[in-house]
Amino acid sequence: MEFFCIKNLNYCYNQEYVLKNINLSYDNKDFLSIIGPNGAGKSTLVKLILGLLNSKNTIQFSGIKKNEIGYVPQHTLANPNFFPRVIDVVLMGLINKKIFGFYNKNDKEKAMMALRNVGMQDFYKKTINELSGGQRQRVFIARALVDECKMLILDEPTASVDSKSAIEIFELLASLHAKGVGILLVCHDINLVLTFSDKIAHLNKELFLHPNQKEKKKSEFLKHLYENHSHFCDVEMSLNSCLCDDTNCHYKESCQKKENCLKKENNV
Asked: Domain ABC transporter spans what residues (predicted)?
């Protein structure tokens, strides 16, 4: 289902074009990633879609309303010295519906459901500073999901996390997308973008849309990396090869043990 359509969109800062003649339609069957250099207009385009910036060019929404879009910004803690509980962070996603700021039982059930959807239900009593970067990002995704969310827009969701957490976040987003949630994100990590995206938009003032044939083997390999290796980085991810085949690799034994266990389970 088409959610929105952008036609001939231009946007300027101080009479200088940031976006030029942007044409883009989004269908929720697509996992869409936007890439491009710094200052290319990616965050500006996201803010225009969300209505955080105004433009003369109207973005046409069809299968979705603006209040059904959940947003996960790059910087998610306005006050770095304020550490609310996880459940309270998620409840903030419902604050626009609270007249006096009080949450009822139904609101808390919604928040717990959102946490279950991102695998963070067991952490609901912890404060946000007790979590790892990847766990925090899951909580912020839950906050965006909590209020009748049909689509997620995320600005650099893996910018402050390690490689393992980045893969886990993309796998979470892929699982949400499989359940019908639209996904549009800005990301610099081309390995993850190529692995998980159906379409990739390269933006540098002008936008060029590329279809992408996702490789199942690539996603399986990335999962293998974070499940079996204490170290992996962009080198292994880019080369699509780890050190398991190296006779001197100190990971080889643990990888083989894991593989043997899986074979035994499959033969039972």
From this structure: 4-230
* Residue-wise pLDDT tens digits, 146-186: 988 999 999 999 987 888 888 999 999 999 999 999 999 99
Give one DSSP letter per residue of 194-253, joined into a string. Answer: HHH-SEEEEEESEEEEEE----HHHHHHHHHHHHH-S---HHHHHHT--STT-TT-TTHH
What is the pTM assigned to this prediction?
0.82
CATH no. of 2-214: 3.40.50.300
The residue count of the chain comes to 268
For 72, phi then psi, to 5°, come to -115, 100
Give the domain ranges of the chain.
Answer: 2-214, 215-268
User: Tokens for 258?
Assistant: 């894991």
| Conformational region of residue 158, where left means phi above 0, alpha means psi within -120 to 50, and beta covers everything else | alpha
The CA distance from 217 to 154, in Å, is: 25
